[in-house]
Every structure is written in C-alpha cells, then in structure tokens.
Specification:
Blueprint: H1 2-11, E1 16-21, E2 25-31, E3 36-41, E4 61-66, H2 67-78, E5 83-89, E6 92-99, E7 102-106, E8 113-116, E9 122-127, H3 128-132, H4 135-140, E10 143-148, E11 154-160, E12 164-170, H5 196-204, H6 212-217, H7 226-233, E13 237-240, E14 243-246, H8 248-259, H9 261-275, H10 277-285, H11 293-304, H12 314-326, H13 332-339
Antiparallel strand pairs: 1-2, 2-3, 4-8, 4-10, 5-6, 5-9, 6-7, 10-11, 11-12, 13-14
Amino acid sequence: MTKLARILPILSRSQGITIHVNDQALDLDAAGPWRLNYRIGWLAKDSYEAPRRPKKILYEAAVHMAAEDLADLIDTASAVSKEIVLTVGNGSFKVTAASEDLELAAKPSTSIQIHSESRNEVSAHVLCNYLGSLRTLMDKCPTVKIRLGSEKPTRFDFFYDRKATFSFALSPRKPAGPQRDEKTKKSLPRLGATRFPDFLVYLASSAKGESPHVLQIAGLESSNGDYSRLATMLGMITYERDRLQITRAGLHFVNLLKSDMDEARLWLHKSMCDRIPEYSIMINVSKRHPVSTDDLVRVINRHAKGTGRQPVLAHEVLTLLGLATWCRVMDRRMVLSYFGKGDKRD
C-alpha cells in the first residue's frame, strides 16, 4: 500500500489507467505523454494474513462518512499513537488511541451513517501509517465506508464520485500472547543508545519544553515514546501540559556531555544502576565473563519474581547492553560477544 501511495500523485495526472492483477504482481499502465508501467510485487512474507477474497467477508458493522473527516482524524490520532481503535456500539462510532500517559478519544460531531448487526461493541485495530499512505486517495474521494468485524480485516471503500470504488482490506492484529498488567508493570524502553544523549540535548535547548510529536518528527523519539520513558525512569524529564520538560538531573547530564564525556558516561551508568534494577542485575552477572542473551533474560526474570516487575524480553536486554556499551562499562570482548560474532540467535 505504501508503494502505491508513492505513485498515486503521478497516476492522478494520467489520461487513463489500466490495471492488471495476477499471482505475481499488480501492473498499472498509465497513459500520457509517456506510457508508464508500474509493477508492484506482492509481499512474499507478511505477518498479517489477509484473506484471498475480502469482499466475501460478512461484517457486523459499517460506518459511512466523509473521507476528509477520516483524513483529519488520522492526522490527529497519529500524534498520539501509531495505532488507532475503531469501535461501533450502541448506535455510535468512536476512535481511540493511546500511548503511555497520553490518550485520545474522538467521536464525530457531524452526522454519519452507522449500521450494526451486533448487540455488542465491534472494534478493530488499524495502523495510522497504512491509512496515512492513502491520504492522496482520501483527498480525491468524497466519502468512505468502513466495515468492521471481530477478528476480521477492516475494509475501507473509497467512493470516487460514481466512476470507481477503491477498496482496501487491512488485516486484523494477531493476538500477542499473554497480556501484561500495564497498570502495575512497565516494560523497558527499546531504543538506540547513541541517540539518547541527542534527545536530552535537544530538550535542554527548548526553554518551554517540547511536545512528543515534534520530537518524533525530528527523529529524536520513537513512535512508542521509548526515549521519554527511559529519561523519566532516570528522573531526567517530566511531562507537563502536553510537553516534555528537562529536569535538573537532565541538565546536569547534558552539561557533563559538553564538558567531560567520560564523566557523563559514568554518571549515566550509576543512574541506571540505581534506578533500573534489570540493568544493575545484568552488570553484576556480566562482570566476570560474557553470558548468552538467553541466560541474561532468565537470570533477570528470576530476580524479578515476586517484585511486581514485568518480565524482560531478549530485545529489552539488548537495549540495556547497548546502554552499557555506550557507558563503556563493558570491555571489547563482551561487546563483540553480544553484538559481533557472538550470540547469533538475537
């Protein structure tokens, strides 16, 4: 879909378009001053298993609304989370998005058509990036019909006047296994250690703080807010009035970065030892000799039992290892063991 979005502006200026579909690819022939042929291959592997005949699916609910309103909603929700939840129930339609301490709930203020054959609420999870790639199409089509079904692909029918209907079926999110209690347990951030100082330096230069969305656009924050979470864990930032503000501890670290890099690395290492138990355990276990990532996961999770802390995953341990590497508390032999020719399973 993202590939199609890149060529839609060109196709919209063509005098005519011919579409051919086969098992290998989608072929698009555009007529104009040049005869253009685009070939979009199907994904060989896709973690979302879409049905071969999406139009044969029976849906429990549908919403018919202006495509322009949907486009505005995607822009708004993408500032909160990369995923939105569409819900139909009790004769109403709502859209929600959430990430960490930021939540969005939206309901249409204009009249829309809602149809539901279920007594219960029907919800579907959709990635904003997928819908955002259809922005050009939304601008061209007056209305869109959204079809929802439990554990079914979410279908979007864009009506281009009375000339054509463009249908897209976005696969449902697969179950992610046992769910964790997010109210009492927090997962560790997943981030690139070398970018964390840049994140704080930028905030230190913003007298009034900065919104998470602006930081994401600047490439200084992940879509899940991982850099903000780590900085919050270390007491380096606070979240006030929808903006991230750097604290005295954060400013102290930034000043060390500018004056003495070795002291900055040591300060960050001590802070993580004091505030992140998993990091401290990892350092103690790895002091004498390299341990496999799987063994580190087992040891850390064994210590976490009965503490109310969330079990760590392999990628989270690798994040901690990356931070320890940046702080230079691991020698070259250990670094190569984890990130070089060592444990290839991760």
